[in-house]
């Protein structure tokens, strides 16, 4: 499994396509895809939204992250900024960070993308 992270609109999806030869058809959007059956997807973008949807459905996003077996997981860093006032938003942010730690720990490589520039933070360059 490979993880790609970084801020919103930094070029993570394009980096995933370029680095791993993915097509638009290989990439599921965590905000709109059918969550059941994505455990073995080629690539999931916006994984932070999968966490949010699982939490809203009363499922454990951390257990899900431990069992996930996708090729590439792309998720936004959502913990760097103003702390949300709403408790549910803070809980989602914390749960996303914890899920990201699990995924990064299980991944053979982790990349961070900033302004379209890819930095390897775990593993070797592709």
Could you explain how this protein is built, in words?
It is a single chain. This protein has 126 residues and is of the alpha/beta class. It has a single domain (2-122), classed as P-loop containing nucleotide triphosphate hydrolases (Rossmann fold). 37% of the residues lie in helices and 22% in strands. The chain contains 4 helices and 6 strands. A 6-stranded mixed β-sheet has the order 2-3-4-1-5-6, sandwiched between helices. Helix 2 (47-56) crosses helix 4 (87-106) and helix 3 runs parallel beside helix 4 (87-106). The protein is globular, with a radius of gyration of 14 Å. The relative contact order is 0.25.
Q: Briefly, what is this?
A:
This protein has helices at 12-20, 47-56, 61-67, 87-106; strands spanning 2-6, 27-29, 43-45, 72-76, 109-114, 117-122.
């Amino acid at each position: 499994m490979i993880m790609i992270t970084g801020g919103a609109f930094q070029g993570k999806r394009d980096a995933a396509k370029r680095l791993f030869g993915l097509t638009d058809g290989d990439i599921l959007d965590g905000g709109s895809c059918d969550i059941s059956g994505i455990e073995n997807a080629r690539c999931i973008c916006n994984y932070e939204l999968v966490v949010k949807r699982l939490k809203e459905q009363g499922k454990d996003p951390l257990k899900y992250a431990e069992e996930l077996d996708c090729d590439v997981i792309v998720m936004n860093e959502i913990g760097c900024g103003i702390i949300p006032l709403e408790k549910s938003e803070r809980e989602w942010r914390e749960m996303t960070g914890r899920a990201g730690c699990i995924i990064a720990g299980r991944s053979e490589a982790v990349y961070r993308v900033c302004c379209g520039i890819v930095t390897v933070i775990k593993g070797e360059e592709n």
